[in-house]
Amino acid sequence: MTSTPVDSAQERILKATCDLLEQGGRSAVSTRAVSAAAGVQPQTIYRQFGDMAGLLDAAAQEGFRRYLGSKSSAAFGADPVADLRAGWDLHIDFGVNNPALYLLMYGEPDSRRQPEAARQTQDILRNLLDAAARAGRLRMDVDAAASLIHALGIGVVISAIGNKAEADTGLSERVRELAIEAITTEDARESSGAQRPDDDAARHAIALRSLVPAASSGLTPGESLLLDELLARVAKAGAAEA
User: Fold this and answer.
1) 159 forms bridges with which residues in the sheet?
2) Other CB atoms within 10 A of residue 120 CB
3) Coil, helix or strand for 95?
4) Among 20, 48, 14, CA closest to 33
5) Residues 118-157: pLDDT tens digits?
């Protein structure tokens, strides 16, 4: 009876591609190099992935799976703002330590082919921000905060990758703190000064808006939509004045 190989040809090809990306960047990934590293014939690559573009898409998906694994195993605590900092640091570390794979994942985004793992990593960020909102610590809505964090994080990593020889080791921390300051408020329980009325209203509106989906069983769909719209207006008005 013939035993089944531990790794399929597809798995070997994908691993070889990721290894080549890590060792020599995207220019190191060629049909010849991948087939030699994986121990397969070049035509096997095309049978499994269609073409080199399909192979690189699969490598990007593998990158998101690895990143998702690191985020899923991260230990987040009771402080939602500290968790946002930890999530930021994890993202930056992954990108700096996997530059070629990161550029494949984030440097050439294609929403039409976004893998499920990529959506799940975005969900983790939204969950962290939603926790901050429910705690009354968010000064803008979750979508706006997620877009800001996402864009700044990618920018910091790509900047670090592009200027590795002259990397600014403090850049990530400075941008992180600017982002945290932009999207969060002080903990009202620990703040020594009074909150601005508009900032306080926005903070509570955002917190309530995050809680409404779980507590709106007594509302009609129309009432839920109306409440969400009103809270969004209060949050937006407060953020504009802040």
Assistant:
1) none
2) 15
3) helix
4) 20
5) 888 999 999 999 999 988 899 888 999 999 999 999 999 9
